[in-house]
Design a protein that fits this description.
4 helices; about 15% helix; about 300 residues
């Protein structure tokens, strides 16, 4: 029986302006598997930087212990939230060997970091296994730029990433272990679900990413669940895995699975429906907010 172990690593940063989801995807893809670089820093600034480490764990997965090590550069000139920048993230086995690594670019200007990245690691326990989710983020970035979220787990005795990182213009919606159904002598274990709340420009769409194992890889099955009445059928034609959402007007949202996402426009009739419903909602709120006028007796 295949035992799947996954790690969830969540990377975040202080609340400042964030890059768009597509920019974050490009940046993190360029950072992953590369050495951290120090660009635009004077010799004195580079020499002043201090190396610090943070450790999390150990986490026991598939009978093995793994420890997460976060490597930072810290500037003694700045004591605020931007005083340190994440350089790399390592996941090591109990012998100290690096089994997984992500690297991040950084630069120094005047003894401070104009752009910083950070990470957080959370253990997920599902019906199909236990693992780590890696969510990375860099600041400054655009509002609602969510992810990337990367699943890492044990397969064939090795710690490997499953699938490509998930990036969206939205937010993390939580993790739901798969239901276990027992009937007579049969036990059915449903897929574990990662939930993403994607902003379309007018409302959020809840998209469950169901984990499915195919061969030695774990794949995501994305199926939207619209939190608005009247347009769910139309959105099902648009909200597919590996596409970008471009709602009406200038607003746009991105749901990308890896770097090979392709843009898609909302149909004109759907845009009309969305705008009409938005206008009706605005009129209803305006009517309800008006003070009542007492009738003359």
């Amino acid at each position: 029986m295949f035992a799947l172990t996954l790690f969830v690593v969540s990377m975040g940063c202080p609340q400042v302006k964030r890059p768009t989801a597509r920019e974050k995807e490009t940046l993190c893809a360029a950072n992953q598997g590369s050495e951290a670089l120090n660009t635009g820093a004077s010799g004195d600034s580079a020499q002043e930087l201090q190396d610090i480490e943070e450790r999390q764990g150990p986490f026991r997965l598939a009978g093995q212990d793994f420890t997460v090590v976060l490597h930072y550069k810290r500037s003694p000139r700045d004591g605020g939230l931007g005083s340190r920048a994440l350089v790399s993230l390592d996941i090591r086995d109990d012998a100290g060997a690096v089994q997984y690594q992500e690297s991040f670019l950084y630069s120094v200007e005047g003894g401070t970091f104009p752009e910083i990245c950070s990470a957080d690691v959370n253990l997920l326990r599902g019906s199909n296994g236990t693992g780590l989710l890696i969510e990375s983020g860099c600041l400054p970035s655009a509002p609602l730029a969510g992810g990337p979220w990367q699943l890492v787990g044990v397969a064939g005795g090795k710690l490997v990433p499953f699938g490509k990182p998930l990036v969206t213009e939205g937010e993390w919606g939580g993790f739901v272990p798969g239901a276990i159904n027992r009937t007579a002598n049969l036990t059915q274990v449903l897929a574990d679900v990662l939930r993403l709340r994607v902003w379309t420009g007018y409302f959020f769409v809840s998209i469950p990413a169901r984990t499915q194992r195919m061969g030695s890889k774990l794949h995501y099955s994305l199926k939207p669940r619209v939190q608005s009445q009247g347009v769910s059928q139309a959105l099902k034609l648009v909200l597919q895995a590996r596409i970008s959402l471009h709602p009406c007007r200038e607003s746009r949202s991105v749901l990308a699975q890896g770097r090979d996402a392709h843009p898609a426009k909302l149909p004109a009739d759907l845009c009309k429906t969305l705008l009409a419903r938005q206008a009706q909602t605005a009129k209803l709120h305006e009517h309800r907010s008006r003070p009542s006028v007492p009738s003359r007796g």
